[in-house]
């Protein structure tokens, strides 16, 4: 029977051998190789997946925002077309045929009660205002200061929508919709309605865009007509040069630019074939980047958990494999151990 001390020594030797095998340099080398191979690949995969998500999210936002700009543009055009229809109806007034402008003034003021228009103005071919519902009939009215587009009515006989201008009576920004008053095939007057920019800003607000998004209406010259943010200060100013240039080149697009305040945005715009006006929506780049960082953070967490699990599994399997003695060593070890036993 083996001596108790010899049994303890042998158990100690076995523990030492097991510990040595557990921390075998080959195990550490295997783990290092796995880490060196997997970590860069995992990080690259996370970055590529995150960027792909950002790109797809940006494309989706641009597509959805373009649909929104079209809806806003339709609302703006509807407002202008409604004003034009009201003017065409008023242009048939018998008071205009008889020249009773005082009676027409009263009729025009009555018509405004059912409209969202600022005023109604009657202009002759010389450009003189004959009737303006903002002033009592017979008051002195401006002989000039009207947009050139309104005078074009006498040459073309067609309805027009002007760009933003300063009303010669109210001295504030206005847009005008004008129609011809024809009698016997001849244009006698230009009948016009003023639309306040505030009305169009209200249409933009009804869309309930996210708080940080900026929507605006631009006339054909690229001037800001209405806006969701800081409209009072910026109405009448030109849009950013990059946006104005793009609006003149194409009818619809999504571009990266800056607002007139200097905010970096992804701008989606659409131009109306009816009025030539453009509606644009700016999505701040900081919101897009925040979404990117959020998605990247989630990917890093998931990737770290998956990578740690894979490394742990590789360490366990590789270590177990390397701790097993090779087939060539087993018989030799056994015979030596047997000889030693016989010697003892």
Short description:
With 344 residues, the chain is an alpha+beta fold. The chain has helices at residues 4-22, 25-90, 94-98, 101-112, 148-156, 197-205, 231-234, 241-249, 285-323, 329-343, and strands at 119-123, 129-132, 160-161, 165-166, 173-183, 186-195, 214-218, 224-227, 252-258, 264-271, 278-284.
Could you characterize what this model shows?
- With 344 residues, this protein is α+β, with helices and mostly antiparallel strands.
- Helices cover 54% and strands 19% of the residues.
- The strands form two sheets. Strands 1, 2, 3, 4, 5 and 6 form a six-stranded antiparallel β-sheet that branches. Strands 8-7-11-10-9 form a five-stranded antiparallel β-sheet.
- A hairpin with a 5-residue loop joins strand 7 (214-218) and strand 8 (224-227).
- The model is unreliable at 326-344 (pLDDT under 50).
User: What's the Cα radius of gyration?
Assistant: 40 Å
Largest sheet: 6 strands, antiparallel
What is the CATH class designation of the domain at 82-196? Alpha Beta
How confident is the prediction overall: mean pLDDT?
A: 80
Structural class: alpha+beta
Spans of at least 5 consecutive residues whose pLDDT stays below 50 are 326-344
The fourth-level CATH homologous superfamily of the domain at 82-196 is PAS domain
- Total strands: the figure is 11
CATH topology of the domain at 82-196: Beta-Lactamase
* SSE order: HHHHEEHEEEEHEEHHEEEHH
* N-to-C CA distance: 11 Å
CATH architecture level-2 label of the domain at 82-196: 2-Layer Sandwich
Strand content: 15-25%
The total count of helices amounts to 10
């Amino acid at each position: 029977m083996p001596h108790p001390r010899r049994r303890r020594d042998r158990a100690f030797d076995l523990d030492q051998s097991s510990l040595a095998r557990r921390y075998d340099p080959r195990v550490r080398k295997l783990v290092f190789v796995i880490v060196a191979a997997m970590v860069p690949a995992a990080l690259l995969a996370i970055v590529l997946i995150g960027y792909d998500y950002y790109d797809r999210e940006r494309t989706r936002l641009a597509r959805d925002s373009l649909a929104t700009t079209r809806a806003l543009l339709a609302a703006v055009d509807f407002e202008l077309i409604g004003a034009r229809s009201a003017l065409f109806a008023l242009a048939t007034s018998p008071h205009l045929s008889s020249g009773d402008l005082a009676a027409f003034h009263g009729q025009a003021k009555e018509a405004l009660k059912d409209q969202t228009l600022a005023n109604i103005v009657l202009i002759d071919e010389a450009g003189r205002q004959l009737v303006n519902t903002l002033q009592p009939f017979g008051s002195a009215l401006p002989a000039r200061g009207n947009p050139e587009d309104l005078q074009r009515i006498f040459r073309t006989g067609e309805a027009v929508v002007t760009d933003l201008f300063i009303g010669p009576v109210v001295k504030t920004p206005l847009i005008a919709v004008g129609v011809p008053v024809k009698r016997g095939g001849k244009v006698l007057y230009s009948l016009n309605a003023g639309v306040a920019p505030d009305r169009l800003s209200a249409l933009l607000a009804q869309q309930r865009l996210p708080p940080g998004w900026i929507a605006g209406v631009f006339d054909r010259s690229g001037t800001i007509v209405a806006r969701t943010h800081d409209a009072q200060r910026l109405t009448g100013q030109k849009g950013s040069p990059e946006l104005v240039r793009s609006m003149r080149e194409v009818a619809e697009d999504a571009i990266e630019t800056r607002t007139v305040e200097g905010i970096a945005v992804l701008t989606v715009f659409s131009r109306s074939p009816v009025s030539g006006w453009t509606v644009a929506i700016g999505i701040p780049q900081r919101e897009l980047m925040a979404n990117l960082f959020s998605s990247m953070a989630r990917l890093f967490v998931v990737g770290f958990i998956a990578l740690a699990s894979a490394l742990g599994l590789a360490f366990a399997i590789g270590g177990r494999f390397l701790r097993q003695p090779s087939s060539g060593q087993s018989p030799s070890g056994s015979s030596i151990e047997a000889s030693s036993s016989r010697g003892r």
